[in-house]
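Could someone model adenosine-5'-triphosphate with this protein?
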Amino acid sequence: MAQEDVFKKIVSHCKEYGFVFPSSEIYDGLGAVYDYGQLGVELKNNIKQYWWQSMTLLHENIVGIDSAIFMHPTIWKASGHVDAFNDPLIDNKDSKKRYRADVLIEDQLAKYDEKIEKEVAKGRKRFKEAFNEEEFRATNGRVLEIAAKRAALHERFATALNDSNLVELRQIILDEEIVCPISGTRNWTEVRQFNLMFKTEMGSTSEGASTIYLRPETAQGIFVNYLNVQKTGRMKIPFGIAQIGKAFRNEIVARQFIFRMREFEQMEMQFFVKPGTELEWFSQWKETRMAWHQALGFGAENYRFHDHEKLAHYANAASDVEFKMPFGFKEVEGIHSRTNFDLSQHAQFSGKKIEYFDPELNESYTPYVIETSIGVDRMFLSVMCHAYEEEKLEGGDSRVVLRLPAALAPVKLAIFPLVKKDGLPEKAHEIMNELRFHFKCAYEEKDSIGKRYRRHDAIGTPFCITVDHETLNDGCVTIRERDTMKQERVKIEDLRALIEDKVSITSLLKKLK
Ligand code: ATP
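Reply:
Sure, complex below.
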């Protein structure tokens, strides 16, 4: 099946099973805004828990905060967002569709990568066992030709971005003969800068309302609380402040479902370090964050780092963690070395001294900052994309199964009485009433056991148990595991120990240390 079709199926699966709904759907939706349904919210909360606990439980020197979305408008002047939080936009005159000029070029770079991979696949097919991939990539004429074109484009693109050269960005689009995917034409407008912040008014106009912004990142809430936390928590550098919260960006193009939303959620951690040590911490955090992703077991080959073509105005190093989505490798998390830019700017704009007195050095300095910033929704999407599978079974049957990591699954255990009589529902409820204190359980008595299994496979429930007539005599139930579909008879009193460890967030956290 084409990857595009797989993605469409994932989107409709999310809706059909109550994971994600388009916002305001009965009014035909609102562009790039989504609601999480009854199962989606559980999965999302589990992702957040995994992140929060990995930060605040596993690191003694990281604490959390929850700052307000509304902040003093000068914060966004100081942070540079009012002047520089822009994306370059371009319109196709025929389709009237709007695009991000940088994304069109990034997609073109990805096309060169795809071409190279196709050549490599052809080579593999031709030379079979004798195929030496490394040598092929280094010597094959066609591969070298494409790689050279890609490198030249990359160089030109990076220069144009760094110089904010909008004319050159447009010229690249023309020279590369990039067409609008809708109209198929190259009839492009000029490239313009577009500020992504949403504005609103606070206070009534008669009192002199002021323009405030919906925060486009949660990070600034951490910076402006740096002194509060450092002092009241008696924090010693190096230390970190973590926060999970909503962020808002008036994205130019909002396609690809929850990959790019106008209202989304971020999990950000700012780690304050001694100046001069930041690049060491930067590589350490890259490693720590990659380990966090890979502990989910989605396969190391599905992740890669991507260094930024253009550094943001505040950064001296930046790298993204990319995950292989059905539409290619895409950013899920950004790791940035933000220097002392933000704290210095806030010191200047607020007139307050924002420094750290280092007792070991006996001197004060403005700390440098390493940021790890991950989108909850993008993480959710990557989990869904990896988990979704249409599996062919023996005997020509098939099933849709969500192979979610058990610790993230919305429901951990489904409990079925074999029939709706003979005291089996009562026994099933008795078991549920005991286990519901330890993990999320669901009870189902409708339809055949086979159909009930399929329903829970489709929402990723790792375990199902069936209570049958024998249960009333021997105190045992049949437990069935989602991925292997293996069934086993176990004692009711052993259920908790058997399941709890596998479905807890702790089981994931233990892989990190
Ligand atoms: P992109 O280049 O895709 O626009 P970005 O580099 O602007 O992303 P950051 O500012 O580094 O993103 O934000 C950190 C993280 O927040 C991203 O890695 C992503 O997971 C998430 N994020 C950013 N913008 C959005 C959005 N519009 N919708 C959902 N998640 C987002």
